[in-house]
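name: query_chain
kind: protein
chains: 1
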Amino acid sequence: MFNKVLFGVVESLNNVTTARPVSADMATRTLQGIDFAHHMVHIGQSFYAIASATLAGTDVLGFSFTAPALTTAYTHMCVSFRGSTAGTGSILENVTSFTGGTAYTAINLNRNSTVASGSTILWGKTGTTPLVPTGGTEIFPCYVSSGVTNGFDRAAQIEIILKPSIKYHFGFTNGASSSQATVYLYWYEMIPLN
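structure:
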């Protein structure tokens, strides 16, 4: 007879070590588990920020994002850009400074957690609360087709690990006509293991 408990794993969280069984599905005999990013949601270390707005031609919607210091955490980031009409998405790294913008509080994806993100975030939109970056190197330019999501998308399992204490700009620049646009950031913060 197939035994549901195959073997144990040892996990350590907050200096408490616990042995837990790893189980398999009885029908398929596959191990049951979740990926690491999903695990980070469960322990309250995953966050998101989302900005949606109606943009006129060539308007910009975006976030400034200062990653926490290395002693705090590495930031594992997924980004999505979407517009109802075509536009361009961009990630700038090593931005010198930002003018304007409004403070944004990241949302913890585990609604039972009181953990706050260690990142500093502003958001802005041309014409309302403009957020203008100075300096920086474009590390990810992308064309965003009408009604299509582009970027380092969690669904595609593509993420970038941000440099500690560095300023980034994640922006969507609208095309020529009016558009409903969204910039979505999803990340988890993990203390370096090595």
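note: Residues 77 and 187 are 4 Å apart (CA to CA).
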